[in-house]
Amino acid sequence: MGFTRAELESFRDAVIPDLVAPGCRLLFVGINPGLWTAATGAHFARPGNRFYPALFRAGIVDRLIDASSGMSDADRDHLLERGVGITNLAPRATARADELTDEELREGGRHLANVVAEFRPRAVAVAGITAYRAAFGRRKAKAGRQDDTIDDVPLWVVPNPSGLNAHETVESLARAYAEPARAAGILS
């Protein structure tokens, strides 16, 4: 499946629902949906995004998920059965995360607190240090486990899997994602 630039632009500001359910143990938090994600209705769907390959490499899921054409019911169910949920700091789709305002990210931090309070995951992993700093006012935060929690749930800042984050590899992403997955009881 491919999209023209005009087709993708038609999804600007669209909102896709969170992928989270009771029994969520590990909640991944993206910055916001990209246009490809909005077009397919699947989180981290842009071809070349390394999120699902990193989940597979880490052992968080037991098969490689390809969400580039949308997510199958079987893949969605597999994530939920494994206790993996996905949400975003900002709900609206943009071509680039730098199109978001700091206020949108701060509002996203409040939304995240509500999602955590409702679903009570064992760990939260925010994918993107710059967005985390803006959302939570932690200008000097570093990647990894944070001293802060959200509603007493341990919090990690992990690398964003976007291809724009070129110095990260599937292997380095998998190592970073495995840390909160161990805390969530998904990995031993």
Q: What attributes does this structure have?
A:
alpha/beta, 188 residues, 5 strands, five-stranded mixed β-sheet
Content of β-strand: 5-15%
**pLDDT < 50 stretches:** none
What sequence of helices (H) and strands (E) makes up the elements?
HEHHHEHEHEEH
**Largest beta sheet: strand ordering:** 2-1-3-5-4
Return the average pLDDT rounded to an integer.
96
Query: How far apart are the termini?
Result: 37 Å
Shape: globular
Percent range of helical residues = 25-40%
Short characterization:
GO terms for molecular function: pyrimidine-specific mismatch base pair DNA N-glycosylase activity; uracil DNA N-glycosylase activity. The chain has 188 residues and is of the alpha/beta class.
Can you walk me through this structure?
The protein is an alpha/beta fold and 188 residues long. Helix content is 36%, strand content 15%. The protein has helices at 5-9, 35-40, 51-58, 73-81, 102-119, 129-136, 170-183; strands spanning 26-30, 84-88, 123-127, 144-150, 153-158. It has a 5-stranded mixed β-sheet. A hairpin with a 2-residue loop joins β4 (144-150) and β5 (153-158). The longest helix is centred in the middle third of the chain and has 18 residues, at 102-119. It is globular. The N and C termini lie far apart (37 Å). Residues 17-178 form the Uracil-DNA glycosylase-like domain. GO terms for molecular function: pyrimidine-specific mismatch base pair DNA N-glycosylase activity; uracil DNA N-glycosylase activity. Keywords: DNA damage, DNA repair, Glycosidase, Hydrolase.
